[in-house]
Amino acid sequence: MARSSSSHRWLREHHRDRFVQQARDAGYRSRAAFKLLQLQEKDRLLSPGQVVVDLGAAPGGWSQVAAGLTGPSGRVLALDLLEMEPLEGVEFIQGDFTGDEALHRLLVLLDGQRVDIVLSDMAPNMSGVRQVDQPRAMYLCELAADFAATVLAPGGDLVMKVFMGEGFDELVRNLRRDYERVHTRKPEASRSRSPECYLLARGWRGG
After folding, report:
1. CA-angle at 173, arms to 169 and 176, nearest 5°
2. pLDDT tens digits, residue range 87-139?
3. Catalytic: 35?
4. Are 121 and 137 in contact (CB under 8 A)?
5. Residues 89, 112 contacting (CB under 8 angstroms)
6. I want to staple 153 with a disulfide (CB 3.0 to 4.6 A). Which of 38, 75, 102, 114 is the partner?
7. What are phi and psi of 196, to 5 degrees?
8. How far apart are CA 200 and CA 196, in angstroms?
């Protein structure tokens, strides 16, 4: 099947993207690694010894960064619907986060251990229809927030990808109820034409 003009445009942009080139040079699995690195530079999210859960992890860019910053004394658990090649220092579960089985497997791995930070770069498969894509994206955010409320240690943090649009303001209000501080960030590595941004909810109130 011939590629559409939009596909050709995306490929040209992708190959010219400096973060794609930098990711290859640095050995990161995706350009998304630089989004987390830029959040880290500004907000100091990750530190040695932390327990981290990375949702929507494949192909592993965020998990690579998290494992490097938390070090051998830390722990990184990653989950994605897609397969992910093994990464040193990362425990991976392949499964659908919207289903009970993957969540159960993740909780079994944690075995009651509290989590310092939940990272979510999850996004739905985009149809291009805003009225369909936005509710799907917000649903994943709600699931990530519910999961964080289950596993975070008091004072823990949640970082998640969101898309500006319907449901965004309500999500922020709910996070401000449950966390000490909520910040909105748009890392440089996040493409300017993308409606995505990241919410940093810091200081889980612990119930």
Report:
1. 135
2. 999 999 999 999 999 999 999 999 999 999 999 999 887 766 777 788 899 99
3. no
4. no
5. no
6. 114
7. -75, 150
8. 13
Work out the angle at residue 131's Cα, subtended by the Cα atoms of residues 124 and 187, and round it to the nearest 5 degrees: 50
The predicted model scores a pTM of 0.88
Residue 29 tokens read as: 């699995």
Q: Which two tokens stand for residue 11?
A: 């490929």
Rounded Cα–Cα distance for residues 6 and 62 (Å): 27
CB distance 19 to 34 below 8 Å: yes
Name the active-site residue from 35, 42, 161, 186: 161
The CATH superfamily assigned to 30-204 is Vaccinia Virus protein VP39 (3.40.50.150)
Distance of alpha carbon 24 from alpha carbon 139, whole angstroms: 32
Strands of the chain (E only): list them: 51-55, 75-80, 90-94, 115-120, 152-163, 179-185, 196-204
